[in-house]
Structure formats: structure tokens, C-alpha cells
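As a warm-up, study this chain.
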Amino acid sequence: VEGGFALDEDAAKYDVAKHHSLVVMPTKTFVSLPCDDLPTVVLNAVDGVLRHAGFHDQSEVAAWSEERRESKYARTLTQEPSEGRKISPDKSSWRCVDTGAVENLWLNLGDGHIGSGRQHWDGSGGNGSALRHYEEMRAKGKEYPLVVKLGTIAPSGADVYSYAPDEDDMVEDPLLAEHLSHWGIDVMTMEKTEKSMAELQIDLNKGFEFDKITESGAELESVSGPNLVGLANLGNTCYVASVAQVLKTLPAVVDRYVAPAMDLARGAPADVTCDFPAQMSKLCVGLVTDKYASAESAVNAGAHESAVNPRMFKNLVGRGHAEFSTGRQQDAVEFFQHLLEQMTREEHKAKARLGDAPPTASQFEFEVEEKTTCVESGAVRYVTRRDNVLPLDVPVESATNAAAVSEFKERELKRQKTSSEGSGGGGGGGKEKADDEEPVRPVVPFDACVAKIAAPELVDDFYSTALGRKGTASKTTRMKTMPNVLAVQVRRYYVAEDWTAKKLDALVPMPTTMGLESSLRGRGMQPGETPLPDPEGPASAEAAADGKGNGSSATVTTTTTTTTTVEPSAEIVAQLVSMGFSENGSKRAAIATNNVSADGAMEWVFAHMEDADFNDPPTAVTSAQSAAATSPASEVGTNPESLMMLTSMGFADVHATAALKRSGGDVERAADWLFSHSDDLDAACAEVMSGGGDDGNGVGNGSSGGVSPPESPVVDGVGRYELFGVVSHLGSNTACGHYVAHVLVDGTWCIFNDRKVAKSANVPLDLGYLYFYRRTA
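Now compare it with the structure written out below.
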């Protein structure tokens, strides 16, 4: 059979019977298994081979596994003297000291206590004695936070959990082998006998969220044909597939890459693997036409799915990028913006082949209008920047079922207290599902998300040019223009206080049609409004003044330009002096950073404290001179704090300035660009600063996220939209898990799950991550 027997793809089409035999070479004698007459050593070897996870299982675990941090307690862990006590490698001898349980056992690396883990999500697993033992020891002043799951110990490592309140998560123990050896366990002789936490997480994910997003369990009708072709998963490439399945439906993409496909192929260079127009065209032709569609699968639901392999496309788009060039799972929103950025660059370079039509990215671009109002004076400033994704925060406090959620949490807490069973993943558990009660998740209306982005934001410590001093400002955000295609990101993922990536477990029912004119349309300067004077000319003073740069290119609406002498902030100087720096040096730092903040001034001190004139009295400078000194690229509004952050990484001022200009002030994107162009940084920076960034770096002129230069026209129209694509993510954060796309094809919603394509029975409108809307009027 062409392609071999792929069980994962064909499992639903066949009844599979497995039979194992031991083959004795070279006679090729077959011994049916199980066979009790075989020597014990052979039986153990056979058992090990059968238990070994195959490549697919290992890949699945890798895809769903989160990155674990090293426990801060690992290298200083105190271990009680073993006094000759050794833990047997024989699993049958393991018992919970308190309850006698024999499964889900965790060894405390500090004192050798073996206890039962917490309950699994399905109600099985344990009783929490390992955690109770830790808490009892802690109450006695003994800190033994690290436990290891006995059944997962193998030469490659094991599951380690930290019960410490400031970690309370799966962790890495770099000294695990040494810690286990203390209790007589040789990791090189151990074999894994139980599911790891990652494997249990896979089982958990294949529950409510997994079933709902992938429509698992539903009788779905497989489909094939033009626009109904799947994409093979090359290993964590589902984020590429989900975005591509949505983009291929856009007329702008079809007109540019499908209609002239033959001409694009003929005009490609000798090394076509490096030619973006040819690779993009090949991918789109494969997805949009019937070239790779299986005629059999179009009429026979049991036929093999139609799918194309995007290997060359993925390699080309990810080339040179710190993340997308790897085989790790990625954020689909970040990839979407990266792809638009690359398309903009390549379409500019290949105008002769692709035509002079506006960049494909312009279909998604819109102008964001930020209005800053000085609360005391009433003066306003309007800043315009470009974006291609509308981010929506989820205000959980606005949930319509807040009372039900609160009651569910109370029931959970009561169950935990009465049964001493935890509800987290620590010590071998997942989520408790006592009495088979489904978790009650907050339901947050779409209108509440829109209201949150439209609500005024108070900005403290804002330097008002109308008052000549700091005060309080109010900032509001609106959409100045409405794009042809609106990409909406529901921000379900966030960074917790301990800097770990988390997922907000909430439902946000998104509408299939919506209008944004009344809620988000920006109106610009209104009659009777007084503009804030801008002492820095056309660059955005506000980003530097309030320390909250927006990370995008800005065009500031101003009517007045004034020049004032910069006086060092007494507060900043006092803070720096209290740290031990000289008064003159502190004044110089405050002036050099235009009184941005104490942190920014301190960064300047660290960078200039060796200067010969650091302790000399500062000379009087104007605000314009200060801006120029702190930002060599002041014409694009470079934030002094952002510049200092990059220079503190070791980059030269000129390189950091060019990177910030190219990325529109976004520090993370600027740093990523600097590292990706390290081979020829001088040439790349010179091209950006000369205004030629469109040819060599993607967008130039301060744009970010794949948007066009600020001087190029922006599409605008009525803000009424209909939904046509949903990209959903399964997993605890965007660095692991799986992506699935639901796309409206010829009036029918279809699910694209890698190579599998079927008619959708229930689009997960409340669980999506990235939604695509197109204009209806």
C-alpha cells in the first residue's frame, strides 16, 4: 500500500488485532507470546519491549509536555541519614506508609517517606498522604518539599514535584540520580512502570476541552475536494496548519498565489526551496484546488484523507527565526503575525512576479487610535498606530454565571477538606472529579470583553506637557479604521506571578456576526478639545513620559511644538542617591532619560557610570535635546527605556535603535530581530536606518507584527463582520498542546484537524483562541 499502513490515520476504518511473537534469529523461529517456558531474563526483556512507548506516544507526550523549571530547593536539599535503609527496586514491595496503597506512590527525597499521591482526575489514584506528610514535617520545622513518583523512575529521569508553597508544581531536579542513590535507588537499573504526569495530562486533555474542540465522539462526515484538503503534521506543526487553512480561503491570497501559480513556478530561481512566492503558491494550490484531493474520499467516508505535506513551506517561513525554525509547539497568533510580516517583505521584493496589488497583510491591518487625556487640564493627545490583531482580555469578574462558579468552588473546597484530597496535579494527580461533577467554568460574554478594551485606563505618574509636571491621565483605545478581515485574539493565556505560563479556564461565546461601529470606532479630535503640547515634535512623548510604550509605530496628532529646559526630577534623583550614586550622576541620569522613571535612570547609570564626566555637574539641556540624546532614532519615537534594555544585553546603541525602529518599539520583537540578524547586523541595521527596511527586513519604518509602512494607505469600511474561521488550542499553554481549525467553506463549517477534514457538527465558538471575521457590508 502506498505510504504503508498508518494506523493513526486509518484506525477508525479497521478492526485491529495484535499478536506478539518472539523471533529467534538466524533460524527465524517464531515463539508465540506469552510463553511461560521462556527464561526469566528473556521474559523481562520481552516485557520491557512491549511496555516501551513507541515514537508516536513519545511525540504525543513531547507535544503536550510543559517546560519544567529547576526547583530552587534541588541543589540545597537536606536529606536525612538513611541509616542503612534502602528502597527496593522491586515495585511489588512499594507501599504507602500510612494507608498501604500500592499505586501512585511518591518518595519524599528528604526523609525517604513513601506516600500516596493525590487523586487523579477520574477519581482514582491516591489519598494525598504524601502531601499530608510534607505538611506535618513542615509544621515541625523540617522542609522536605521534593517528591518523586516511583513508577516513573528510569535512566532518562522521572517525575519530580515540589510541594513548597512558592513552587507547588512539577519541577526538574538536576541532582535526582544523586538524591535517589542516597536511598539505594540506581536510576540506571530502573524501568518506568506507570504513566508520567505528562501522559496523565494527555488523558485529562482528551476530556471536556479536547472533545469539544475536536468534536471527538461525534459522527462527523469526512469530506474532500477543493478547499477541503488537510495538512500533514510534521511534528508540532499544527499551528502552521491551522493558520494556513484559514488564510487559503481569502480571495486576496487566491488571486495572488493560486491564479498565477504556473507563472510563479516558471519565474522561480534555481533553488526553489528558498523562493517564498513559489512555496506559498504550491501550498495554496494544494489546499484550494483538487490537485491533491482524493476522488475516493469525496464519496467514501472510509477512504484515506487527502492531505499535503508543508515541509518546504514550514522550513522556509521558519528559517532564521529563533522559535519557528525549531520543532517545538508555538503560539498560532505569533506565527500568524510572523507569516504576514514575511509575506509583506517577500511581496515587496517580488513585485515583478506578484504584481503591484496591496500587500496581503493589508487585508488585516487597521489603525488603532489611542486618546490620552490629562485629567487635571483636560488637554488631549491622539496617537495612531497600526495593528493586525484585535486582542480581547477576558474579564472573569463579568461572568454571567459567577454565582454558580462560586458555589462549585465551595463544593470543591468542602470535598478537599473532608477527604484530604487535592485538586491540583501535584503528587500524581490531576483535577478531581468527585461524583462525576463537571467543573463549572465562568461564561464571559463577548460584549464584556469589548467593554473592557474600550474602558478608560488610568495612567499614574503621567508627565503632562500642559501642566509642566506629572499628574494623572486617562487613556482610551479605539479602532480608527476597520479592516476587510478582522483577526480577534481571545487572551486565554497569561504569565502568572511566578512567571509560568497559564491558561484561563473560561468560556467566551463569540458571535457569528458582530458590529463594532458603536463600541470601538474612533472619532479623532473633537470640537472643543485642546491638544496637549508636544515638546518632542512628531515623536510620541507619551510613551516615554508614562513608561508604557505601546510597542507599535506611532503617528502623533499635534498642533503645538514647544521647547523647555529639562530639570532633573527630584524624586528620581533622591532614589538614585539613596542607592549610593552621586548627586551629579543621578541628575545626569534623570535628564538623559527625560525623567522617564527611576528604573530607566538607573539603567542609564549602569551604562554610563564609568564615563569620565559622570560626576560632573549636568549642563542644561532642552527637552528636544534630551529626547535626541536618549533616542538616536527619535524620529520614530524610540522609548529610552526600551533602548536601555537592549543595550544592557550587549547590543550597541545604533543596533538597538535600528531594531526598535524596525519593530515599532516592541522590545521583544527587536531583540528577536537582533539575534536573527547577528551574522550581518551592521548591514541590516544600515538598511533599516536608511529607510530601505522593506527590502531587507520585512516592514521597516517602525511597523511591527507584519503591518505595512505607516505611509501606505489603510483599508477602511463599515465595521460589520461575519465569522468564517476559528483557530482553537488545546493545552495548558501555547508552548505545548495541539491546534485545530474550523473554517466556513462554501457555506458549511468544516473541521481541519491536521490531515483530517470533516463537516463540523458543533463549532467551539466559546473555546477558540484566534477568530477570523470578514466584512459583510
